[in-house]
Specification:
- The chain has 380 residues and is of the alpha/beta class.
- It is 32% helix and 24% strand.
- It has two domains: 8-159, 2-Layer Sandwich (VC0802-like); 181-219 and 244-378, Rossmann fold.
- The protein contains ten helices and 15 strands.
- The N and C termini lie far apart (60 Å).
- The protein binds S-adenosylmethionine (SAM).
- S-adenosylmethionine (SAM) binds next to helix 6.
């Protein structure tokens, strides 16, 4: 078995409602897609294809490479199937592995139990075949084996990613209510920004939207910001191919970007946003300012985008204050952003009614399980 050359089913997972943007990214890389579902999509390819996907995808979570499909009516049958797989061609005997799973089966009420079964099966296989066994644990720093098991149908995958791709590695100072990086990337891609005109992001918080906009506009891919992936621990991994892909990512970067402006009322938020942007390598591409959003200087005569992610609030007092903030956001967009397309990402559509503009488009997202919507406004 040569996992760098064998083609198999690849499943790319993502957070609920991000699939259309992962699909767009995968299609742009030239891959065909065989099927989609709420939290991911399927294609066909090699581990080297998984390497490309891992380095390039902004909106995905994990890239899974199928090892084997099988039927299992109970955990014992899972154990026997997993034990019969030749793990010694995938995991180094002195290596490290961990097990994750997605299980919906009447015989299981705790995934940890199934993970343990899979781990035992791999360890027992190694002991019988080689007399030694690799270490294992909960950390995702080695080979990651993933079991999907639903209605007696099971699939055993190599999770080629390890820790999720949804974090892009630069946000060391998250601030109060940060957007997940993959969500921010999808939320920017969901708009009509052409990546050449100004991107203005008042209320920027830790800077995620402005940073993702800068990364997108200058073709900086997430692989540039990450060194460790689970695929690097698989026997037969093509290190030369990985290096080539990294070199290609570096060559693709555009030195110049469009005007990107990020402002926030709080000095600490701007300090955090600058720090995060520097880690992402895009601080020189963003103009930061501390000010009330209504004082943000929007370049006139341009067809850029103005992008807000205001707080959505939960307590009553907070809501009354926020109604005024949303109303002022509406006024600001009407009076100061002519020719722009406005976006408001919020978890509270009732608050958004205070904007008093008609949304031309509504795109649904989830942020940490909260139903959210991205509202689009044409500001004539
Ligand atoms: C929900 S957070 C934005 C989170 C951001 N998208 C991120 O990923 O970190 C809202 C931000 O609005 C800022 N803010 C609140 N009222 C403001 C005002 N009147 N003018 C400017 N910024 C304000 C807060 O300081 C906070 O950083």
């Amino acid at each position: 078995m040569d996992v760098s050359r064998n083609k198999s089913r690849i499943v790319v997972t993502c957070l609920n409602r991000l699939m259309p943007w992962v699909k767009q990214e995968i299609t742009a890389l030239g891959f065909g897609i065989n099927g989609t579902f709420a939290t991911g999509l399927e294609l066909h390819g090699t581990i080297n294809d998984c390497i490309r996907l891992n380095l390039n995808l902004r909106c995905a979570s994990n890239v899974l490479y199928l090892l084997r499909d099988f039927t299992a009516r109970n955990p014992e049958e899972v154990y026997l199937q997993v034990k019969s797989f030749p793990w010694e061609v995938v995991i180094q005997p002195d290596g490290y592995f961990s097990v994750t799973s997605h299980v919906q089966h009447p015989t299981v009420n705790n995934n940890m139990f199934v993970n343990m079964k899979v781990k035992d099966a791999i360890a027992d296989r190694f002991r019988e075949q080689t007399g030694v066994r690799p270490n294992s644990g909960a950390g995702l720093q080695g080979v990651v084996v993933h079991l999907f098991w639903k209605e007696n149908q099971a699939s055993l995958f190599l999770d080629t990613t390890g820790p999720s791709l949804a974090r892009h590695g630069y946000r060391k100072k998250p601030g109060a209510a940060p957007m997940l990086e993959a969500l921010a990337a999808a939320a920017v891609m969901a708009g009509k920004w052409n990546k050449k005109t100004p991107f203005v992001n008042p209320m920027c918080g830790s800077g995620t939207l402005a940073i993702e906009a800068a990364l997108l506009a200058t073709n900086r891919k997430p692989g540039l910001l990450r060194q460790a992936y689970a695929f690097q621990h698989v026997i037969g991994y093509d290190a030369a191919f990985y290096q080539e892909q990294m070199e290609q990512l570096k060559r693709q970067v555009m030195a110049q970007g469009p005007t990107i402006i990020a402002t926030d009322l709080r000095t600490e938020a701007i300090a955090d946003a600058r720090y995060n942007a520097a880690l992402a390598g895009v601080d020189h591409l963003i103009r930061f300012d501390v000010c009330d959003f209504s004082k943000t200087r929007v370049p006139a005569g341009e067809k850029g985008v103005i992008y807000f992610n205001p707080a959505y609030g939960e307590r009553m007092g907070e809501l009354a204050e926020l109604e005024k903030v949303y109303s002022r956001i509406g006024d600001f967009m009407k009076n100061n952003c002519k020719g722009y397309t406005g976006y408001v990402f919020t978890g509270n559509p009732d608050l958004a009614k205070n904007i008093r503009l008609k949304a031309s488009q509504k795109t649904k997202f989830y942020s940490a399980r909260i139903d959210c919507v991205l509202l689009e406004y044409h500001l004539y």
